[in-house]
Amino acid sequence: MDASQPHAGPAVFAPFVPWSAIPTRSAWSWPGGSTLAVAFLLHVEFVPLNPPGRPLASTVVHRGPYPDHPDIHEISPHEYGNRVGIFRLMDRLAAHGMTASAAVDTTIARYYPAVVSRIADAGWSVLGHGRTGAVLQSELIGEDEERLLIEENLDALETAFSHRPRGWAGVEYGESSRTVELLARAGLEYLCGRPDDEQPFELENGLTAVPVSIHLDDVYAGRLRKIDALAHADAVIEAIRVLEAESNASPRLLVLGVRPWFTGQPFRVKQFERVLTALEASSAWVAGLDEVVDHHRRAMRGRV
């Protein structure tokens, strides 16, 4: 079958998603002629002792009685990320001269000024994220509740960072069938999360979809799939090599989800640094997600 032919199958994808095959797309490049862009997305979240609402994120449902009853052994590691882990990761990124992006929930924006100021001082892209890291956006919450969740988060982030976010990355990349349209109505420009491509692409309502490599997300790999830190770093480095080798024909994007409470642990951070060192030796462009979206849009308009 000719890959250039329109997709003839049923529209079984999420709403607003056009289909295309990567070999048929136009040639362009990232800044400096790079054919691979890499973006780190830190999930900066608060997890409460008694989470209101459902469904619960799988990354907080692990052992013991939580979430039906408070479990300090489940909550404390998440809080460690906001007290220690995020600063360790930010120090490592800064030492390698690299930027990142932060998906920040409403509770962090309102009650964690030390975290907010550090992200603001670093000049990172800031994305909307939700109320806390415990409850997902999904079909199980109503449209009015989801709209309120989005607006509350964007308002809190605008107050905390003195500018309104341009992008959104839901808790565990969760969405309902209404999310894409609600984000557009809220004035957002891009949605980061769907693992359905290796390039950004435009949704039919004007949002840019920025895919994430779910299989290389730190918690999905390490906690849910039980891959150890060494093997996970090896996999990320191999992905960088493969994408660089394949991207001569068409540029690629690798977005890596990182949790400060998980990767920020001292016994894991060495492997995170291995990835940073591999990136320094590569030709990849490491950028914030706002920059990635801006450059992609200019490329699609023929200006780069």
Short description:
With 304 residues, the chain is an alpha/beta fold. The protein has helices at residues 72-95, 106-111, 113-122, 143-161, 179-185, 218-224, 229-246, 260-263, 266-280, 289-300, and strands at 36-44, 101-104, 125-128, 167-168, 190-192, 201-202, 208-210, 252-258, 285-286. Strands 1, 2, 3, 4, 5, 6, 7, 8 and 9 form a 9-stranded mixed sheet that branches.
When the domains are counted, the total is 1
Instruction: Tell me the quaternary state.
Output: single chain
List the total number of helices.
Answer: 10
Percent in helix: 40-55%
How would you sum up the global shape? globular
Rounded radius of gyration (Å):
19 Å
How far apart, in Å, are the first and last alpha carbons? 32 Å
Uncertain stretches: none
The overall strand count is 9
CATH topology: TIM Barrel
CATH superfamily: Glycoside hydrolase/deacetylase
Q: Which sequence of SSEs, written as H and E, runs from N to C?
A: EHEHHEHEHEEEHHEHHEH
Structural class: alpha/beta
Mean pLDDT figure = 90
User: Which band does the percent of strand residues land in?
Assistant: 5-15%
Specify the CATH class.
Alpha Beta
CATH architecture: Alpha-Beta Barrel
The description of the largest β-sheet is:
9 strands, mixed
